[in-house]
Write a structure and sequence with these properties.
Blueprint: E1 2-3, H1 5-8, H2 14-18, E2 33-38, E3 45-51, H3 54-73, H4 76-92, H5 94-105, H6 109-129, E4 136-138, E5 146-153, E6 156-160, H7 168-180, E7 183-187, H8 194-206, E8 213-215, H9 221-230, E9 234-240, H10 243-254, E10 259-263, E11 268-272, H11 278-290, E12 300-306, H12 307-322, H13 342-357, E13 361-364, E14 368-369, E15 375-376, E16 379-382, H14 389-392, E17 399-405, H15 408-416, E18 420-421, E19 423-427, H16 431-440, E20 445-448, E21 463-464, E22 467-468, H17 473-478, E23 481-488
Parallel strand pairs: 6-7, 6-9, 7-8, 9-10, 11-12, 11-19, 12-17, 16-17, 19-20
Antiparallel strand pairs: 1-3, 2-3, 4-5, 5-23, 10-22, 13-16, 14-15, 18-21
Helix pairs in contact: 3-9, 4-6, 4-7, 4-8, 5-6, 5-8, 6-7, 11-12
Bound molecules: NADP nicotinamide-adenine-dinucleotide phosphate.
Length: 491
């Protein structure tokens, strides 16, 4: 693989990451083709990677399968030590990892640094959790029996990650899998494979045995996905990405009743009730909407604001949004980077023109910046109604639609009126209301008087068509463990 001068110029220790192709699992590649990785801010070529084929994926799966017994056979403490070691190396090289992330994904460097810290936090959490895998004993109904449950690793895990959090998604999947004693084949998104490659290079230094971690680079996810789902050696698929691809993977896994964990799309409501602290709500909405340029599955997608506070909220919010600086993530004080590609830009443009056509008002922004590149002005739209595309679909960009409401019961019904159920937010101060609304919202995660809730200590995941299973917390470990009931008789 070649890393270009542009990328290595950002690194303190380029030699460590320069030749990612020398990572052992990649020597399996047939090397038929290559694909290019570009910087979305500048369009510059960053690297060219081997475009692995189905046969290469099968080799990676074989390696993971061969390493399975050895890795599962280590003590929990030994697995924990390797995860700690990896965690330390990631912290040590966090500046370089953040630079790689900003270069290939575009997010501001400060956000990239915080993502690397978040990725490291998952490794730390599961290094600790590895030591806390417990079974149970059951009171047997007869005296001559003993009954118990032990937990065992599922086996080889196929993991597929998206481009919007290319480091933390990798850590969030791999660390519980490794802690549980599973081995992994990972395919990162085509747009952002470099930070995953760099993390794997550090894993190699951390001393994971050969075959425990395997990386597959590919320009298209479908061939890799088919092999991971069809190969009987893979016992579980863990996927983060769109609901559409989640449905496809579920169908492909049905032949072997393969276990799945899915973190899929969202359409998060953000409700500001009449008893909310408006300033806090404005600040929370900025965080929940504009982090990562709105390219976040838990991004506030529909802002419902009570009539009595609507105007003051809209004014203060638009003022702050207008001040968000857009640009190359490496520039100082940039808050909003580019969108990942031209398709993302076209989607946001389509949402804006549909809303305007149906009577909405642009309070700020509304346009792409420049003719080349994928920068879009942070945008606030008011006068939004439920029939507009922005009220129904995930925008995945820096566009905040504000919907006025009067009836507090009706707004909860509207918030739940979606196939998605990932994250919801609301601001209120009345305690009775806080509990009633928190319980009524049909979402896997609810932020109450906060616009930010991701944490390695909490179970991340969705209801309805937003996913299956949870990542993070002690629950995230359970997704990689099988329960085995042992019954001993004749005692
Ligand atoms: P995507 O198109 O579903 O891609 C995600 C990953 O799946 C990429 O690695 C992609 O690889 C791969 N992929 C694509 N088609 C595939 C197929 N047929 N079989 C197997 N793998 C395939 O999603 P995206 O557009 O990159 O990401 C945005 C979506 O992800 C949004 O809906 C967002 O809400 C969701 N998301 C959810 C969470 C969560 O935790 N719930 C977190 C982040 C994002 P290639 O790119 O190489 O094709």
């Amino acid at each position: 693989m070649t890393l270009t001068q542009r990328l290595t110029g950002h690194l303190k220790n380029p030699a460590l990451f320069f030749d990612l192709a020398s990572v052992p699992h990649l020597s399996a590649t047939s090397g038929a083709g290559r694909f290019a990785v570009h910087n979305p801010s500048t369009g510059e070529l960053l690297a060219e990677l081997p475009d692995m084929e189905t046969a290469d994926v099968a080799v990676a799966i074989d390696r993971a399968d061969a390493a399975r017994a050895c890795w599962a056979g280590l003590t929990a403490r030994e697995r924990s030590d390797a995860l700690w070691q990896w965690h330390q190396l990631i912290l040590e090289h966090s500046d370089d990892l953040a630079a790689i992330l900003t270069a290939e994904m575009g997010k501001p460097l400060a956000e990239a640094k915080s993502e690397i810290a978040h990725a490291a936090a998952y490794l730390q959490w599961y290094a600790e959790e590895a030591n806390r895998i417990y079974g149970e004993t059951i009171s047997a109904p007869s005296k001559d029996r003993r009954m118990l449950v032990i937990k065992q690793p599922i086996g080889v895990v196929g993991a597929i990650t998206p481009w919007n959090f290319p480091a933390s998604m990798v850590a969030r999947k791999i660390s519980p899998a490794l802690a549980a004693g599973c081995t992994v084949v990972l395919k990162p998104a085509e747009q952002t494979p470099l930070v995953a490659g760099a993390m794997f290079a550090l894993a190699r230094l951390a001393g994971f045995p050969d075959g425990v971690l395997n990386l597959v680079y590919a320009s298209e996810g479908d061939g890799v996905g088919r092999e991971l789902c069809a190969n009987p050696k893979v016992r579980k698929i863990s996927f983060t990405g769109s609901t559409e691809v989640g449905r496809l993977l579920m169908r492909q896994c049905s032949g072997q009743i393969k276990k799945v964990s899915f973190e899929l799309g969202g359409n998060a409501p953000f409700i500001v009730f009449d008893d909310a602290d408006v300033d806090a709500a404005v600040e929370g909405a900025i965080q929940a909407k504009f982090r990562n340029a709105g390219q976040t599955c838990v991004s506030a997608n529909r802002l419902y604001v009570h009539s009595s506070v609507h105007d003051v909220f809209a004014e203060k919010f638009a003022e702050l949004v207008q001040a968000l600086r857009v640009g190359d993530g490496f520039e100082a004080d940039v808050a909003i980077g580019p969108l990942i590609d031209i398709h993302a830009l076209r989607k946001i443009e389509a949402h804006v023109s549909d809303a305007v056509l149906k009577g909405a008002t642009i309070r700020c922004g509304g346009n792409r910046i420049g003719q080349s590149g994928t920068f879009f002005e942070p945008t606030v739209i008011t006068g939004v109604i439920s029939t507009m595309q922005i009220a129904q679909e995930e925008t995945f960009g820096p566009l905040a639609p504000i919907i006025r409401f009067d009836d507090p019961d009706e707004v909860v019904r509207a918030a739940n009126d979606t196939i998605y159920g990932l994250a919801a937010y609301f601001y209120a101060s009345n305690l009775k209301r806080v509990w009633r609304v928190a319980e009524a919202l049909e979402y896997g995660m609810v932020g109450i008087n906060t616009g930010r809730m991701s944490s390695e200590a909490a179970p991340f995941g969705g209801l309805k068509q937003s996913g299956i299973g949870r990542e993070g917390s002690r629950h995230g470990l359970e997704d990689y463990l099988e329960m085995k009931y042992l019954c001993m008789g004749g005692l």
